[in-house]
Task: structure prediction
Amino acid sequence: MAERRMFAKTIVLSDAFLDMPLSARCLYFTLGMFADDDGFVNSPKGIMRQCGASEDDLKVLLLKRFLLAFDSGVIVIKHWRINNYLRNDRYVETKYTDEKAMLTIDQNGAYSDSGIPNSGIPSIGKDSIDKVSIGEDRKGDYKGKTKFSPPTLEEVKAYCSERGNHVDAERWFDYYTSNGWKVGKNQMKDWRAAVRTWERDEKKTGAKMKTPYDNIRSDAKGDDADRLARLMGVNDG
Result:
């Protein structure tokens, strides 16, 4: 196994990463140092205790999807292939080949857990996500269901870049933030699907998607538009 480990600035200097507690970021770096050459770790709790991190730090990394978890208790660092590049003569494949087979690799090089059953409900051993309490917005009933967690702006930008579309990520993010992450009258379940829908609609019309705020601004100006927007619960960011 290679002795050196690297961390990409695009990952560890992103707002999504820096918004996490310092202890969670420290745990991420420590896991990165102990991971095998494919980014897998089989004893995350032991490493967590070794660097003085808490259960919540591990769960934050899972909820923010900097780590992906398997039922076996093994975890993998999602952006491992972005962080690290190893020469073939130094690379040793992970022994967790069954878990590796469940992953796909996105166009940007990150691991995707779309092939893992219940991948939206990360768990480590017997501690499941329904026991997590990280702020009021994390509470809820996870019995057989995946609770929707809004993405960060950086995640939306990265996904749009990965797809090579022309969706204005900031405009998309502001719109769904302002309406409470709802699609029509229903709570959003899959933000990536919402991006793809927005993308398809823009391709059909050949123009930027219109939001309720755009319609308001077309009929009113300045402070009047802002007041109408607030009344409708719409915010242009």
The CA atoms of residues 132 and 138 lie 7 Å apart.
